[in-house]
Amino acid sequence: MSAAIAAAKKNLKVVIAERDEITGGILNQCIHNGFGLHYFKEELTGPEYAERFRDQLSRYADSIEVLTDCHVLRLNRNKKALLVSPKNVFELEAKVVVYAAGARERPFGSLMIPGDRPSGIFTAGVAQRLMNIDNRKVGRRALIVGSGDIGMIMARRLTLEGIEVVGVVERLPYPGGLLRNVIQCLKDFNIPLYLSSTVVEVKGRERLEEVIVASVDEQFRPIPNTEKSFKVDTLVLSVGLIPQVEMLNGLVSLDKRTRGIACSNTGQSSNEWIFAAGNCTAIFDLVDYVTKEGERAGEYASRYVNGERFSLGIPIVPGENVMLTFPNYYNDIDDLTLYLRCKKPMEKAVLKVGGFEKTFEDLIPSEMIVVKIPKQKLSNLDRIEVKLEEV
After folding, report:
1. What does pTM read for this prediction?
2. What CATH fold (topology level) applies to the domain 2-104+242-312?
3. Residue 148 — pLDDT band, cuts 50, 70, 90?
4. Are residues 254 and 261 in contact, defined by beta-carbon separation less than 8 angstroms?
């Protein structure tokens, strides 16, 4: 929505293809607060945040056409998209495409956990939708796997709905989500967090009955004789998001670290007429960041339609103590807004990027670092290495 609004402001005709019955994506089922603190400078729920952008869409109704219940089945090299809706199958031709398909959850099958395959095992997003949209109770006694933000938020939500949450299991030695969610979702509700632990077996006939959890070593291998048994009927998985990029296979280059679309700071991919923004490029902490990247992609996509041409620019590569960076390339058409994650928790570190330096404290991999770097600090470089030197 933010990309469409940015393009409409540049007098472009825009079509939004949305496969759900309403725009807003995952925001519509995120009924908790914490959205909009950066963008709107106030705290909103997910539906409230989405509604603000739907209101803006309505102001540009002459320029923006919204197609709901509409799935893009295929995108061709000739800039034609095949769309499917309950009413018909049709084709659209565009001058430019802004791809903002988000991410999907890692499923239970990918974890290779031994044991039975009973009912009662959900990914966090599915459990969230069942409860918040469909008003269904998913169980009576639950265990959460993964301390990502969605997992911790669901631990709180399950508790508020009268479901006993016996704990959150995390294989890393530190929480996988934002510190504020550790405090507001787990500590405030007395929900135990089991770090350096993983599920080694699930048991149950028709319905889940028992989950076995063991401690893990530094290589995440289960340690013998450390098993704990949890009698639960529900297992909720928050074990990571994967950028949804399958539709663009063969059309654009992907980044090996983020597994998303490799982009420049203009939002442009390796295919000059395809721009991308949001969790299909890298997994962001906050919707506020996604919104700003969407606006950026929409603006530069409109400039492309109006005849401007951009090079991808010079590569941005993670260096010392840096796990991943976004964007993947830098074009000096503008200052660089850099997103990165550190590899390990650090009390204090100096970020070095070209001629730019800045000190950060209390760094953890689960919290994204966002910094704006003036283009003057990045001049005369053939590659940009991003380093965090521990102090």
Report:
1. 0.91
2. FAD/NAD(P)-binding domain (3.50.50)
3. confident
4. yes
